Amino acid sequence: MDISNSVVKKDHAQKMSGQAVYVEDYPTKGILFGKLLRSAKARARIKSIKIPPLPDGYIIVDKNDVPGVNQVHIVMDDTPVFANETVEYIGDPILMTVGPCEKEAKRIIEQIQVEYEDLEPILDMRKYDTVFFDYNYDKGNVDKAFKEADIIYEEEFQTGYQEQAYLETNGMTAEPGDGFITIHGSLQCPYYVHTAISKALGWPGDKVQIKQDTTGGGFGGKEDYPSILACQVAVAALKAGKPVQVIFDRREDMEFTSKRHPSICTYKAAVKDGKVTAMDIDVMYNSGAYTTLSAVVLQRGLICANGVYNIPNQRVRGRAVKTNTVPCGAFRGFGAPQTFFAMEMIMSHIAKDLSLDPLTFKKAHIAKQGDATSTSGKYHFPVPLNEMIDKIDQASGYWAKREEYEHQAGRYRKGIGISLCFHGAGFTGSGERDLIKAVTKLHKYPDGTVEILAANADIGQGVKTTFAKIVAKELNLPLEKIIIENPDTFRVPDSGPTVASRSLMTVGELLRRAAIRLGKEWKDGEEQWVEERFEEPDFVIPFDLNVFKGDAYPTYAWGVNAVELEVDTLTGLSKVLGAWGCYDVGTPADMNIVVGQMEGGLLQGLGYSSIEYMTADAKGRIRNNSYSDYIIPTSVDVPNMEVIMHVEEYPYGPYGAKGAGELPLVGVPGAYAAAMEQALGVSINHIPFTAEDTIKTLREA
Amino acid sequence: MENIIKFNLNGKETVYTGSPSARLLDVLREDYRLIGTKCGCKEGECGACSVIMDGRLVNSCMVAMGRANGSSIMTIEGYRETERFAALDKAYAEVSAVQCGFCIPGMILASECLLAKNPNPTAEEIREGISGNLCRCTGYNAIVKAITIASEGGRGLW
Amino acid sequence: MVKSYLASSLEEALELRGKFDLIPYCGGTDLMIDDDEERAYLFLHQVPELKGLNEDDEYIRIGAACTFTELLESRLTPAILKNAVSQIAAPAIRNLGTVGGNIGNGSPKADTALIFFVTDSKVRLMSSKGQRTVPISRLYLGRNKLDLKPDELITEVLMPKHGLDNYYYKKIGARRALAISRLSFAGLMKAENGRITSFATAFGAITDVILRRDDLDNLFIGKTLDEAKAVKDEYIKAYDKAIVPIQGRISAEYRKDVCMNLLKDFLDSMGI
């Protein structure tokens, strides 16, 4: 059985028929509903809170009710379960009202009077006064290269928020049991939630049960946020002595949950003899009010800062700064889209200044297998970008159109752009080995069925199916004999979070080995268990986070994107005539599933580049808080999207597979902006580049 | 209004005695426990709550119960018993068009309505027919392919 | 609990409207965005007199409860109106949303209202005491404010059916479907025997009320195309002063630029 052959997904039937149970679908008899009171101020001290008389059956839950520590553990511990003395952003949760009727709980919230002592908020990331994380690393001799340069370029690039906009909002239910607590909901990482709950409640791990419900999309937006909501409902459930559920409505979710970090990047390049010899890069990400995942997002952004190119001399500095705005977290790409955008743009701007074709110029710099990475690790495996560029050209007619569209005039102007990227497959650095330490198990029942026990959540990306395929293939069993349920921490070991495009590549490989072992040890009619633990492959050069040196990732997934568009200079509106992505994620573990991921990510990348504009008002409140204000693509917006797979097998991934989920979004902004640049005859340095930007650019031309 | 609202729900004559201004979406989910109809935004902007009312696709979050009086409503629970559903089921499965699944019940009913009106749609017509159903996972290509396959394979069904 | 009512005839609807404080509900796609179960509605979807879509010698007569989909499916609907309606939201909204509701919410973004403005359509308002027919421009008093008495219902739109063939319509939304208008423009021209006999323009979504400056448009009436070209600059200059878009999520500068671009393109397309 060729693993790539598509199968009917394990969860197809129940989702198709409407029988899949998401957190909001459970019967609500005996459940209490919670509503959060959130800060109306971006930064303030809470002077007093006046609670109106509460009807029977309604309680207030706040920081005083947290049994353990009033902290939600997300890498660090600065996010409170409920606000302490100060509030740090509009939306910071202060307390929860809980009772039998959700509407009544909401009414009570509206009657609560909070007296604030205003403090001066920082809303503009350029005006930061607190740096959460400050990293830097270098390679070679940057100062010497700049001294010897023929030309020096410097440019600033900006990227905006992006909201995950999963169709199912965040939701969580906590049910106090007899000496334990069960929490279930929409989430990506059961064990992240587990750790956070144990800490906040001060309870040992074996008293905490986290269960993932069928989850309606995540994209990183449910990587850390669920830990916060889970702690809040857990505390409430313990106080109430009854199950408590909180489901966000769309506005609450859009305004107050995590988003992609906005960025400001300054890139300096030294060019000698027509080649970039050095780069001096400064990256700044807007963390929002708390640290959450910013350290890791920044790390990835910095590691990717020089793109797919072999630049011998580099200095990279990055800061994640605090602002009194909604804390930013994970979103497909996790810090890489921002820096890939900047790098792709400056490379083409340099090329244009040197009167060279941008793609030819970029190709001359592409790293090769064996070259050092930005962090002085190594590209151990083939870098297939040149072949992939050819594939994109075949599909899109890139070269011919690029020439045809030079110097557009008239009302409708076309442009085509191309970009190159990678996604470091797996968790950054030695995290997999030192922090996650993934464990997975197979449980064979006497009847010959085999259950997969892993903590990875199927959030639509199909891990239930791909995991099952791997085990079925090794044991030569039909797919129906492989059982895989939504993870429950009482039943599955910690195989690590569903993040970093690691599930298939890392956990899938553990399952493959476990299945092989089970196959060898198989005894008919007996119950058997097999456990498999992560081991870092030998070839990996260990990564030292203190100096950013070594293999940040064991391998890379590669991407080439092309976007062709037509701009109506009268209205500023743009039509995407074609969008192509050629992606190397190793052996596709299921062709339909992998292509589906590529297409979904490509479209998200197009939205990020163009119409997904999100901003805060003067007080620091997110303005785009509904699907009518935060614009994501519909079925009619990009009808011509094509994905082409390229396969470079990764020997340490199951059947040659590597990390796939995030790659398809990462390179899209560079291609979109390049197409827009050609159409308008200008240089672009920010995304999203909207219709308004187009008209403004034309006006100023 | 006597606060008696009569409507046909998945083929069954039904009487609702609650508030006429309650949302059909909430009533379907809470009063009738038909949880296949999902809530994505409550503003008519995403289509996750789509149901078929008097043969037309509507967002059930935009329908007050009073408006439903005298109408015929079909949810995914009713539709999944039909032969047409089976054709769509097969097609969607063939191209793995279901990812997280949250948009799917609404998307299926939108598929039904567009094929009922136009049994041999072009890709463009399909996209227009599902333009009110947001999907964040798939990029829509697989869904369009699935509906095309269903329309071709389901000759005579629509 | 507040009481809602379901009307089964126009007479009954008007009586209820006059007697109780009720919110008229046809399609509900605007009303239901607010989460208010305490509202008392007057459900009109079963009032047959409001569903008519007919024509007489002068007008297309559109019942207030006609849905957008019904307009799209009727051969009576003029092309300019079909064009605008086809770009409203998405199929599910069009299946419910009505002309009466589109006007009733008093928004300058209402897609059909723009067409009714530019065609100088009339709106019939009825109460149990009588009725009146007003030009649509006189119905709008301000943003979300209509000259609608508490006992009146919008029952019909009378859209002039002649002189609609030569039209221009553009809606600028954030994307190709499910898009609320960021600005919109409609224009009409009719010429007979080499002279312009009617000329009309209107802009939506940029000011509190749809902008209809027939005083400016009248500059072209009676002129030949060449004569019209001679006053084109004057017209554009005057309109430039008249268009002062509101700054909202979308900048006023963008709206202004694109409005003027569309106006000029309209003139070009008409040969002026």
Distance between the termini of chain A: 59 Å
Order of helices and strands of chain C: EHEEEEHHHHHEEHEEEEEEHHH
- Look at the structure and give the mean pLDDT of chain A: 97
Strand tally of chain A is 26
What CATH calls the topology of the largest domain in chain C is: Uridine Diphospho-n-acetylenolpyruvylglucosamine Reductase, domain 3
How many strands, which pairing sense, and closed or not: the largest β-sheet of chain A? 7 strands, mixed
Provide the gyration radius of chain A in Å: 25 Å
Name the overall outline of chain A: globular
Tally the helices of chain C: what do you get? 10
Structural class of chain A: alpha+beta
What would the average pLDDT of chain C be, to the nearest integer?
A: 95
Question: Order of strands in the sheet with the most strands of chain C?
Answer: 4-5-10-6-7
Q: Mind telling me the CATH superfamily name of the largest domain in chain A?
A: Aldehyde oxidase/xanthine dehydrogenase, molybdopterin binding domain
Number of helices of chain A: 18
User: Strand percentage of chain A, roughly?
Assistant: 15-25%
Description:
Chain A is an alpha+beta fold. Chain A has three domains: 23-121 and 164-256, Aldehyde Oxidoreductase, domain 4 (2-Layer Sandwich), CATH 3.30.365; 263-428 and 547-700, Aldehyde Oxidoreductase, domain 4 (2-Layer Sandwich), CATH 3.30.365.10; 431-533, Aldehyde Oxidoreductase, domain 4 (2-Layer Sandwich). Helix content of chain A is 28%, strand content 25%. In chain A, helix 7 packs parallel to helix 8, helix 8 runs parallel beside helix 17 (668-680) and helix 13 packs parallel to helix 14. In chain B, strands 2-1-5-3-4 form a five-stranded mixed β-sheet. Chain B has seven helices and five strands; from the N terminus they run ββαββαβααααα. In chain B, a hairpin with a 2-residue loop joins strand 3 and strand 4 (56-59). Chain B folds into two domains: 5-76, Ubiquitin-like (UB roll); 82-153, Orthogonal Bundle (DNA polymerase, domain 1), CATH 1.10.150.120. Chain C folds into two domains: 48-160, 2-Layer Sandwich (Uridine Diphospho-n-acetylenolpyruvylglucosamine Reductase, domain 3); 167-269, Enolase-like, domain 1 (2-Layer Sandwich). Chain C is 32% helix and 25% strand. Chain C has helices at residues 10-19, 68-73, 79-86, 91-96, 99-104, 111-118, 136-139, 214-217, 225-242, 252-269, and strands at residues 5-6, 23-25, 41-43, 53-55, 59-63, 122-127, 130-135, 140-142, 145-146, 153-160, 167-172, 183-192, 195-204. The chains are: A alpha+beta (701), B alpha+beta (158), C alpha+beta (272). Chains A and B meet through helix 1 and helix 15 of A and helix 4, helix 5, helix 6 and helix 7 of B.
